[in-house]
Design brief:
42% helix, 153 residues, 5-stranded mixed β-sheet
Length: 153
């Protein structure tokens, strides 16, 4: 078993998606609730790992459960502080969706100056059209993207 890494997960801001299906709405609601549980610091032993259905809700729940198991997730409430933790080496990565440029612009510069990477969730170089943000320590990109790339839409 691989040692746990520390990443910071930020509860997503409300997203505007036109013509969402009911399944997608339920999945997003489930993901938001899972993030809220993580943010509150609850350590619950729950899983949908062995559920037989292949619904979007079950899939998202299983993916969030895998992230909870795989990584030590934390949130400190301010994007700048969380990005500085990545730059300093106190956290391996910062994952976020929905923040505005002014929330992370300074932190992005700090992470890059410290030798970190600033990408989208699929590993592509970040640009201002991306709302899916990954800042990480050198060498962490692969393992984190492996766990989150399929969540970017």
């Amino acid at each position: 078993m691989r040692p746990r890494q520390t990443i910071i997960l930020v509860q997503p801001a409300p997203m505007r998606i036109t013509a969402m299906t009911d399944d997608l709405k339920l999945a997003l609601r489930a993901a938001h609730k899972a993030c809220a549980l993580i943010k509150a610091g609850f350590e619950q032993d729950f899983t949908t790992e062995h559920k037989a259905d292949k619904s979007l809700v079950t899939s998202v729940d299983q993916q969030v459960d895998r992230l909870i198991y795989e990584f030590d997730l934390r949130t400190w409430g301010t994007t700048a502080l969380e990005l500085c933790a990545v730059a300093k080496g106190s956290a391996d990565a910062f994952i976020c969706v929905g923040d505005k440029l002014w929330d992370y612009a300074a932190g992005m510069c700090i992470v890059k100056e410290a030798g970190g990477e600033f990408l989208d969730w699929r590993g592509a170089a970040w640009n201002s059209s991306h709302s899916f943000i990954l800042a990480c320590q050198p060498g962490m990109k692969g393992v984190i993207i492996e766990n989150i790339s399929h969540l970017q839409y």
